[in-house]
Amino acid sequence: MTTTAPTSTEVFPREGQTRNLVLATLAFAISFWAWNMIAPLGVQYAKDMDLSSTNKSILVAVPILVGSLGRIVAGVLTPRFGGRVMFTALLLISAPFVILVAVAGDLGSYPLLLVMGFFLGIAGTTFAVGIPFLNTWYEPSRRGLATGIFGAGMGGTALSAFFTPRFVDWFGYFPTHLIIAIALVAVALVCWAFMRDAPGFTPNTEPPLPKLADALKLPITWQMSFLYAAAFGGFVAFSTYLPTYLNDVYDMHNLSDAGARTAGFAIAAVIARPVGGALSDRFGARLITAISCGGAAVLAVWMIFKPELDSGLAAIDFILMAIMMGLGSGSVFTWVSTASPPERVGAVTGLVGAAGGLGGFFPPMLMGATYDAQAHSYTIGLSLLVAFAAVACLFTVFGIPRKESETATGK
Asked: Which of 272-303 are b and which e, b meaning 16 or more Cβ less than 10 Å from the residue's Cβ?
């Protein structure tokens, strides 16, 4: 089903669009920084607590799991309470768990760190708030760009990868977590003071379970969930596991250096995401998604052969991979925002967002389980990535029926 865009400025007012887009993106970015607080320090946790490769992978992956499944709840609640309430609440709820992660790390308790990492996953649910929130502000013809810009808030993972190890060096381990907790509270207060739901927003008071059940009946939900698991899931997996990958494959022990390279990966994906949304507005989400998945499959093949790090070939491979995943993340949610029934966008967003997060949960665990320590190789895990991305490309082109609007416009 393709929605028809109303032309009334009363429904999609231009005044306030930019301010609320910027605030939503800011809230998304700082929450994703908090969500990714454990991964940049994963190598240090493993060293201090003598963790196995599997235990280290579980530690990194737990916040991803909770942040993913929690998006289903956030996506359903946003149409009821509005983006202003949801962003503020989630930021405030996440702040104490950032500090409790630091307490667990100081105590050197792996079980406690797992528990606090579980609750830290709440910070990863804000993505499911932004899409329905912005859908009420922007007409369908501009949602690709708007959701793409908002999606660039996933650059919070880049900020975390680059600055978290440096903050630990500059300020200390506990103060670093305290700074991020304070930042979460500060942004929550800014959102409450200046963010507004669109004038056309009407709270949806339908019971949540029937909404989820209806969303699960829509083919678009399952189709986009699979594609988003490939695109955004790949981004999450790489951005959280890359420091470990660099350490295991290229013997890079310096957390700051690994964090800088991980930040570069995330920034490339962040820049590519709004581009993917804008290109989807122009050329169609199907084409951009197919390019994304196909390109990721080719680049994963190159990664299997361990391109040299010193010559810059490995960096080129990683950056191009990030661009492909960023383009796909933007294009898939352009598809979601225009093809979902308006009254079900929140529920569909939550389910698709959860699938994307789950797509990032399993690869780190799989990589840890299949790592060949003697060969310093992740060949098995990368081969599975090649297969998954290739299937996603073929499914995009041949597996999803074309709508009449696509046929008419050539998209």
From this structure: bbbbbbbbbbeebbbbbbbbbbbbbbbbbbbb
Closest CA to 234 of 390, 83, 104: 390
Q: What's the total number of domains in the chain?
A: 1
- pTM of this structure: 0.73
Q: What percent of the chain has pLDDT over 70?
A: 94
Which CATH number fits the domain that encloses residue 210? 1.20.1250.20
Whether 129 maps to a domain, the answer reads: yes
Question: What does the pLDDT read at residue 404?
Answer: 63
- Domain residues for the domain of 23 are 17-409
Distances, alpha carbon 54 to alpha carbons 143, 243, 250, 372, in Å: 40, 15, 19, 12
DSSP secondary structure of 81-141: H-HHHHHHHHHHHHHHHHHHHHHHHHHT-HHHHHHHHHHHGGGGGTHHHHHHHHHTTS-HH
pLDDT above 50: residue 260: yes
The residues, ordered by sequence, that sit 6+ positions from 289 with a Cβ below 8 Å of its Cβ are 227, 231, 280, 328, 331, 332, 335, 396
* 250 assigned to some structural domain: yes
Tens digits of residue pLDDT in 14-28:
778 889 999 999 999
Q: Domain for residue 3, yes or no?
A: no
Q: Is residue 270 part of a domain?
A: yes
